[in-house]
Design goal:
heterodimer, A: Rossmann fold, four-stranded antiparallel sheet, 8 helices, about 25% strand, globular, B: alpha+beta, 3 domains, 24 helices, elongated, binds adenosine-5'-triphosphate, binds magnesium ion, Macrolide_Exporter_MacB (chain B), transmembrane transporter activity (chain B), membrane (chain B)
Chain lengths: ~230, ~800
């Protein structure tokens, strides 16, 4: 589904130029769960941002099914993103002024889903995430794990083809972290493609494939046998 | 989407309700000021606009070497009409030259201005009696109309609009006149009157020496005015030459020209006058606008300062596919809503302040009028401030890159700081200029109040009077001597005199000649005891004295300025020639400021006999202070015998109050500047208060860390204050030259003025720095007093 070729990204600041991505090649099949690992500063987040069309690389190609995404203009990128992608962040990034329900509702609004259907979709996902009795709460009133579940719900409510998760368990203890990982697995089983950045090999063990980055290069790739067997 | 955006906005505003209230409140105050100024501006610039001929009406003025005037000879009207086909019609008007008493039984009306107009002028100037404009014809020479209010005073029960008989002057005068009906006097016009005296034609028997009328032209559309102006000048010179009654030389005629002044100029910047009202109006508008800009800057500044709070929201929304334009619109809408609330509050405020405003500017503005221009101006103002205050923050906020802001440690404190600081400095610049301006206006006014004006107007009573006094008596006038004798018998009256003009009013101008040098100078026709009554100082020679027979024939007294003007050496005993008389100069007085402090004392000649002069009607009495009340009571009781023409209508004013009116404009300016300076500094401080609150909130963690590392409270106060202190200092340094130039310009409008003092500059710096330090410290105190452990735990 995703074909990334020779992707290069350079950050220019006044004093230094940092090459965050240095010729990345990456293919992701539909329905795959891919983990990206590597030392701090190797370009994992940058890669994810580029894949999520939040950042523009200097050169390379990024094909989604058959569409080349890097030549799109801002508006087309926005449109593509809201129809096809969902995001989960390490620091949740919920809007503090909106309730749980409203936070989850927001992407549907941007997708111009009618009110009645919106309500239905949000309620469905709230039930699935087991946060029904929290739907009127504000983010500050939830625990970290609950917040991340809301964030996942928000990423899923539009039924995106691709979910991008940047260290989704980074701010959570192991039990809350596991909850989130299980959610992602469930989601993957229903056919959603997932690309996740993580530092934890435990989390990575949930995925089909692990890609190792270093200094903006892909240095190794590992098929997760146990997980793939499990799949079969 | 709108619903959720609104929720986010409202919850955000509520969380920062202190700052929001300051922001919206400050804007409301500034807007109220701006609304008032806008209303006033609209009012002042639309005098006579309701006249359908507004765009085509011009007054014909005459430009002499020394001055310009709209007074011109009546026969010239006819000459213009006969010569130039592009002039559609020509009208004449003449202001009432004295106050008139009109009576109906016990009801008495004192009119100040009965306007004489001819039929054409009434048509051109849209002067419409209630029962229609008709041309006087046949037996009826004049049709007299009184304003509705005047009519009400005389005939309180009158319902119809039928003609009525009234008495003119004292009840024993026996003059009766028919009033043809009532007429609405439009206060919003250059022509306000208590009544109209309508004639078919005016000034038929006048000649070219009698410049008593104003000529109004209605031009056909698309006439080349500059061209016509030239042609009319030629015609005027030709007519003067043809009817040369005062024997002017061709060189003198060459120096005279005419000009056409459009009706739209008359109120604010007549060519025959000065454009001070116009300049004042512009200054006032700029003031109002600046105050509004300052309030908008508060908005911009705080919105940007708070941007960090909204950055995550922007990032998340963009991740979900929001367009930048959607977000821009969202933030603009938020600011619009706040501006809208501010506008409503501003209207309420303006309504509350309006009575004071009306009183100060002597106008009758009102907000709730159906035909008010505010109906279209307000939405315009609202959009304008939304754009000024909102466009920049909206662009900044909607421009955040999601990849950056969602990392979690995003901070805006470094970003745009030069802009925020720049805006803060700008605000304080304006405030400093206003404070300096105010202090300097105060100094000048104090100077004017304390300065010797060269005469003493206190305990001088000015009596309004209809009798024409002249000495020697000429046609229609009587001698003042018997009146003076009777007046001086009243206990307390120290001296009594009569003159053609009083200090504080305009003098007459005529041509006088000394040693073959000719010049137009001011003249005042006086009677004995004039200088003594006003306590004017003698420089050399003597005052007029009863004992000198020649004083009522050809004696003159001139002032120092006249001596200088003609550069006369040893003036006493020399001859000054005017109106066919060789006057002998018997005395020179010291200059005194009849025209206040703005214009330089004019060269002036004082004579008792003057065939070309004006009638002496202005009685002046010097009365002992402690016998004032008794003397006035006695005057009122005896007035019908002393002065039968006025009869029972004894009316007076105190000269010092009259003269004080010359200061009115400056006092008005002082009030306006006081309000403006107060407002700007208040709004700027409000903004600073909210801004400092925001900055210190953002630095709570830093302050906590510093305290743990051993910083003392004083060090932290210094830390927080220092950047604000520097900004205010910079603002002061920038504003000083601006304030210097502006106040210097203003002072130059005075002939008698203070030297530009340095103190206001220092004071303004002290005031603004003190206010800043106090404001910032109040905010800093919270951060300093907080327990550092709590602050860090909170994070
Ligand atoms: N906005 C930016 N400006 C300049 N350099 C940047 C920027 N963002 C990232 N970088 C640099 O690009 C490189 C890759 O950063 P990236 O955030 O992708 O690392 P990462 O692999 O996600 O690290 P971590 O595991 O710590 O999150 C780093 O060297 C970083 O310093
Ligand atoms: Mg990262």
């Amino acid at each position: 589904m995703i074909r990334i070729e020779n992707l290069e990204k350079v950050y220019k600041t006044e004093e230094v130029e940092t090459t965050a991505l240095n010729g990345i090649n990456l293919h992701v099949k539909e329905g795959e769960f891919v983990s990206i690992m590597g030392p701090s500063g190797c370009g994992k987040s940058t890669l994810l941002n580029v894949m999520g069309l939040l950042d523009k690389p200097e050169s390379g190609s990024y094909k989604f099914i058959d569409t080349e995404l890097l030549t799109l203009n801002d508006r087309e990128r926005s449109n593509f993103r809201k129809r096809n992608m969902g995001f989960v962040f390490q620091n949740f990034n919920l809007i503090d002024e909106l309730t749980v329900f409203e936070n989850i509702e927001l992407p549907l609004i941007y997708n111009k889903i009618p009110t009645a259907e919106r309500k239905k979709l949000v309620n469905e996902i709230i039930e699935r995430m087991n946060i029904v009795n929290r739907s009127g709460h504000f983010p500050q009133q939830l625990s970290g794990g609950q917040q991340q579940r809301v964030a996942v719900a928000r990423a899923l409510v539009t039924k995106p083809k691709l979910v991008l998760a940047d260290e989704p368990t980074g701010n959570l203890d192991s039990s809350h972290g596991n909850e989130v990982m299980e959610l992602l697995c469930e989601l993957n089983e229903t056919g959603t493609t997932i690309v996740m950045v993580t530092h934890s090999s435990h989390d990575a063990s949930f995925s089909n494939r692990i890609i190792n980055l270093k200094d903006g290069h892909v240095i190794s790739e590992k098929i997760n046998k146990s997980r793939n067997e499990e799949l079969i | 989407m709108f619903r959720l955006n609104l929720k986010i906005a409202l919850r955000n505003l509520w969380r920062n309700r202190g700052i929001t209230a300051i922001n919206v409140g400050g804007l409301a105050i500034a807007l109220a000021a701006f609304i008032l100024v806008t209303m006033y501006f609209t009012y002042e610039t639309s005098f006579d606009k309701s006249n359908p001929n507004y765009k085509n009406v011009y007054v014909v003025g005459v430009s002499y070497p020394e001055f310009k005037t709209n007074y011109i000879a009546a026969p010239f009207a006819k000459a213009i009409k006969q010569t130039y086909p592009e002039v559609e019609s020509v009208g004449l008007i003449k202001e009432g030259s004295f106050e008139l008493t009109i009576k109906n039984g016990k009801n008495t009306l004192f009119t100040k201005n009965i306007l004489a107009v001819d039929y054409n002028a009434a048509k051109i100037l849209n002067i419409q009696p209630e029962n229609g404009l008709t041309k006087p014809s046949g037996e009826v020479e004049r049709l007299n109309y009184l304003s509705k209010e005047s009519m009400q005073t005389l005939f309180p029960d009158k319902k119809d609009n039928k003609p009525e008989m009234v008495g003119y002057g004292a009840s024993n005068s026996g003059i009766t006149v028919v009033v043809a009906g009532s007429i609405r006097s439009n206060e919003h016009s250059n022509f306000v009157f208590d009544g109209i005296s309508l004639a078919a034609e005016l000034g038929e028997h006048d000649n070219y020496d009698m410049n008593d009328y104003s000529i109004f032209l209605k031009l056909k559309p698309n006439v080349n005015v500059a061209n016509l102006e030239k042609k009319i000048t030629d015609l005027y010179r030709y007519e003067l030459l043809k009817n040369n009654t005062s024997k002017k030389s061709t060189a003198e005629l060459k120096a005279i020209s005419t000009f056409l002044d459009p009706l739209s100029n008359l109120h604010l910047r007549p060519k025959a006058g000065n454009d001070m009202p116009y300049k004042t109006l512009i200054a006032l508008s700029v003031l109002g606008f600046l105050i509004l800009v300052i309030a908008c800057i508060n908005f911009t500044n705080l919105s940007i300062a708070q941007a960090a709070n909204r950055a995550k929201e922007v990032g998340v929304k963009k991740v979900m596919g929001a367009y930048r334009s959607q977000l821009t619109l969202q933030f603009l809408t938020e600011i619009f809503i706040q501006c809208f609330v501010a506008t409503i509050l501003a209207l309420i405020l303006a309504e509350l302040v309006l009575p004071y405003f009306n009183n100060l500017f002597q106008v009758g503005l009102s907000i709730w009028q159906v035909d008010s221009d505010l109906i279209w101006q307000l939405p315009l103002i609202l959009s304008l401030i939304t754009l000024i205050a909102g466009i920049y923050p909206a662009m900044v906020l909607s421009g955040f890159k999601p990849a950056l802001v969602l990392k979690g440690n995003f901070s805006t404190s470094k970003q745009n700081s030069w802009l925020r600081n720049g805006l803060l400095v700008f605000q304080f610049c304006i405030a400093v200029v206003f404070i300096i301006g105010l202090l300097i206006i105060n100094s000048q006014l104090k100077y004017m109040r304390s300065q010797d004006v060269g005469f003493n107007s206190s305990q001088v009573v000015y009596i309004k009077n209809l009798t024409l006094f002249n000495n020697p008596v000429k046609f229609g006038s009587v001698s003042f001597n018997p009146v003076r004798d009777r007046l001086l018998k009243i206990p307390g009256i120290k001296s009594a005199t009569v003159a053609s003009f009083i200090p504080g009013g305009q003098n007459g101008i005529n041509s006088y000649e000394v040693n073959a040098s000719k010049a137009n100078i001011d003249f005042v026709n006086v009677d004995f005891d004039y200088f003594e009554t006003l306590d004017i100082k003698l420089k050399e020679g003597r005052f007029f004295l009863n004992t000198f027979k020649t004083d009522t024939i050809n004696s003159a007294i001139i002032n120092e300025s006249a001596v200088a003007k003609y550069s006369i050496k040893n003036p006493v005993g020399q001859t000054i020639r005017g109106c066919g008389i060789d006057y002998k100069i018997v005395g020179v007085i010291k200059d005194f400021k009849t025209q206040g402090f703005e214009s330089i004392v004019q060269p002036t000649i004082y004579t008792i006999k003057d065939p070309c002069g004006s009638y002496k009607t202005q009685i002046l009495l010097k009365i002992e202070e402690n016998k004032m009340a008794d003397a006035l009571a006695a005057l009122k009781a005896q007035w019908p015998q002393i002065n039968p023409k006025d009869g029972e209508d004894f009316r007076y004013e105190f000269l010092d109050e009259l003269y004080g009116k010359l200061f009115k404009k400056q006092e008005q300016l002082q009030s306006v500047f006081f309000a403006a300076a107060l407002l700007t500094i208040f709004i700027a401080i409000l903004g600073l208060f909210a801004f400092a609150k925001y900055i210190t909130n953002g630095r709570i963690k830093e302050i906590a860390v510093r305290k743990i590392l051993g910083a003392s409270d004083v060090q932290i106060f210094k830390l927080i204050n220092s950047s604000f202190f520097i900004m205010v200092l910079i603002a002061n340094v920038i504003s000083w030259p601006i304030a210097y130039i502006l106040t210097k310009k203003w002072l130059e409008t005075f002939a008698y003025r203070i030297d530009l003092p340095a103190m206001p500059f220092v004071s303004s710096a002290l005031i603004t720095i003190l206010l800043t330090v106090i404001t910032v410290s109040i905010q800093a105190k919270k951060a300093v007093k907080a327990n550092p452990v709590d602050a860090l735990k909170y994070e």
